[in-house]
Task: structure prediction
Amino acid sequence: MAYFDAASTEPLHPQAREALISALDAGWADPARLYGSARRAKMLLEQARSEIAEVLGCRSDELSFTASGTQAVHLGVLGALRGRRRAGRRLVVSAAEHSSVLHAGQVHEAEGGSMETVGVGRTGVVDLEAFGAAVRAEGTALACLQSANHEVGTVQPVAEAAGLCAGAGVPLLVDAAQTAGRGPVPPGWSLLAASAHKWGGPAGVGVLAVRKGTRWRSPLPEDERERRRVPGFENVPAVVAAAAALRAVAAEAEREGARLAALVDRVRAEVPRLVPDVEVIGEPVARVPHIVTFSCLYVEGEALLTELDRAGFSVSSGSSCTASTLRPSHVLEAMGVLTHGNVRVSLPRGASEADVDRFLAVLPDAVRRIREEAGVKL
Amino acid sequence: MTSRQTSEEDVGQAPALTIDALGKKCPIPIIMLAERINHVPLNGVVAVLADDPAAFTDIPAWCRLKSHRHVASHELPQGGWAIHVRRNY
Result:
């Protein structure tokens, strides 16, 4: 079985597993208390915080742990909008943001705020000129841009967007879920969100960084946890494991990223050569190393996932037939690319060249069979 | 999702063929279009009636990949769209 769905979740890093098991014994107590086992849990939590902060490029006291990357985005977006309420109630997002950003924006709209969605080009890159105009508009409280797109791998011009936001005096929230641990976070953000299970940590740990001086007010009832940013008892063992994974993947990121990028290059080049009527999607160069997406004309996405699963490949799809909503991916729609017959291959750490070769060997027949069964004679 | 069109002067042209793909899921409307586009003369217009949301994006994308022309997409009163495509070759 070849697991090619790292963009959904990266398998647990062996060092995270090891750290998790030992922290279950050493870090179970309440880090808010004052006795020995509690102080040990607190020490483990703060040690993990400072390690993660260092990799992400922020201060420890700017970083809070949440229950997920999605929760980090929700708290980041809604908290920044609350904190900037006097500046206005406009939220600016790119059309290719993760659904967690758009869902938070919908809550903001339901509460009387507004959300402006800035379009992306055919390869998924945000329209910077439109983004700049949108953040300069009167009453803009917050802008959001992902570091890279989770469905097509396109890297967004975050540094340029941050410059535009700074010029307008608007904070920028960067959703770094697909790049944290894979490379440096571009400078200039005011809020940063990421998710540990995407970098090989355990599920149940998100991170939200709020730069010193950024206005933020909790949209949730507050308690004393996580500097009053995230209520509820911290999952210290999982946070410790998340830090171990991040340290490990960041140390090997450059080498492993180059290796995965070469494998993705091969998929990008070979798929259109081996399969007729296919569109490879997303930026060819300014992209993350591990994601490649393509759509096959006249093919039902669900049928293709089933065929590939039978052949031993775990991949995902943005086609509507594979979504619970029966709508195509909003990212593919925003890009104006084929949404049916869509396959996202996202390579985990250590993905083997032999598995990629085998994928390229089985794909053409899988597509041909589905087209034949559908009676496509083109 | 509202109607969209690529060029004003193309819009008036009456379809030479209408394909009813209402109720059909992608890729079936695209397959129907690809099989029948050559049934209209060169520069003739095919109207695809479709209500699968994927068709709204995918038919214009198909036109781009196959070098035909997406003329316009008009919303239908009962839901869905009439997506007009001009045969280019």
Notes: Chain B has one domain: 16-86. The first strand of chain B starts at residue 4 and ends at 5. The radius of gyration of chain B is 11 Å.
